[in-house]
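Alpha-2-HS-glycoprotein 1 isoform X2
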Amino acid sequence: MVTENVVCCGSLLYTMKHIVVLLLSSAVLLCSAAPALELVTCSEDSGAAAAHLAMHHINEHHDHGYKFRLSETQDIKVVTVDGGCDVELQLKLLETKCHVVTPKHFEDCEIREEYERAVMANCTVMITVKSDDAKVTKYECDTRQAKTNLEMVRICPDCPSLIPLNSPEAMRSVDETVKQFNQNTSNQHYYILQEAGRVLAGYMMMAGMVYYPEVVLLETRCPMGSRIVPEACKPLCPDRAHHAVCRSSYSAKEGLGSVECEFYPPSNVTALSPGEREPVCMPPYHVGPPHPPGSGGPPHLGPPPHAGHGPPPHGPPPHAGHGPLPHPGHGPPPHAGHGPPPHAGHGPPPHPGHGPPPHAGGRGPLPGQKRPPFISHPPHHCRSFNLLRFEPALHPICPWPHPELHPHPKHT
């Protein structure tokens, strides 16, 4: 049975089996026009315009993870040079809930609450202004969780925590989500994993450890029902493919809960000419070997400046740790559309310090578990840039311009 409900701007929300699908058209996502960029000058009063330009540039070149919004301009320096000036900005950014495949403008995206494991970035941005022509020439960002695990335990002891994207538990929950998605026969083609956006983990009394993956899927050339296994299918070019952003819940005891997905149409809808073949593109995701689970990455860098220690803005959300996960086909997923429940159980998580949940730092699959066959991406796309500090549970903002991966040796 299919039920339909009208939601914002004419979108349709309907349930099919136990997959909840949100169809979003291009017109829906462009309900609000992006504000025009202001003129950046060499005056210190132009700080807001310079920060606005920087945010547009950062989001334009941030091709993985989630879009960011400006939280505050912490400092601005203007140095006069011949014919103009050089501007240096110190910006604090906050991660939004909009994945980069979402056409929605970043300024219209919702910022995560603390209990949702908010992510921030401190960025240094260089801008050159000549003859009233301003260009971003360089930026570097330090991306981290807004609060450490220890701080979050003090504020919200039952809130789920982010775990490394290449941990065995994260990979298993992502794999199960993709498999379930491809059982939805209403899709015209199979989809493959583009990337795992984030995976939260929390303890529930009846279900044990529960994992909440958010994944981005990419449409392939393989028609639904073809004999080719989905993970072997070649993806369509990103601009000609549908994308799906899906959220689900998974536990070893209860299996996969409901899967909720938002679909985004191709940005290029130009029809192929008679006899013209679908173009071939390189995959939009990195396929190199991941860091071995358990490497853990470098230690956490600590909280941002002036990190508060009080409760979330609207008070702690209700507990949701009573009873097992819903079985597929028996109602909507918990907190549909809003990720995992804010509080996933009673009592602190098993590792309230700086570590992931049990086994998340192990060096192999869980007992009796095979490693998922096609999740081979590293924890983030900046890995090739030799970042010394990163959290494998996040998608950091990579430096720009990208440094040479293999600089040529100097000849003497």
